[in-house]
Design a protein that fits this description.
The chain is mainly alpha-helical. The chain has eleven helices and no strands.
Amino acid sequence: MPASHFLIAGLTLVLIDLLLAGDNAVVIAMAVRHLPRRERRIASVCGAALAVILRVALTFVAARFLEVRFVKLAGGLLILWIAFQVLRDAGQPPEVEAPPRGLARAIWFVLFADLTMSIDNILAIAGTSGGHFGLILFGLAVSIPFIVVSSNLLTRLMDQYPIVIYVGAAILSKVGGDMALTDPWVKGLIQISDAARYAIDAALIAVILIAGWWASKRSRQTPA
């Protein structure tokens, strides 16, 4: 590949990472919010780095990965669960003592959710790189600092402005719902129109926000 084409493709990959890293940053921020600050960084970096390593392999089989039944369904349900869990804990101080294995669990959440949400990123990078391994590795590696920096900024905003938690939960509810509804197994069971999908997204957002608010209220009322 000529140097000029390599440079243009590299810059294009950076732009793709900037455009597609938003949802990933939100789910990472929600997953690590209740860890201490130092462990937040560890979970964010380790989870994103492990996801990138797996993305390198998946980039070469991205189209087939999209057709694996239950992968997107499981990822969507996990994201909905993370949104509910964070809302449930929203009334607690952001840096309460982490439970045993809290860091390892957060890394696992970040790895699985980030990986399942990165299908659009994988396909875009695979197309832009033209199959060039160096470009694929560059594009995926560059996504780590974008996602980690964005997620750390979001966790700080959540600490200062609790309303951001609810906005993040609403975003994740929509992302999780869309992911689950587009799973090959679900699509094989039912045919959903665009209007119906919007209605389901709205219902999921409402259910997660109300259930999370109610669970948070109950947790504050429960004696320690």
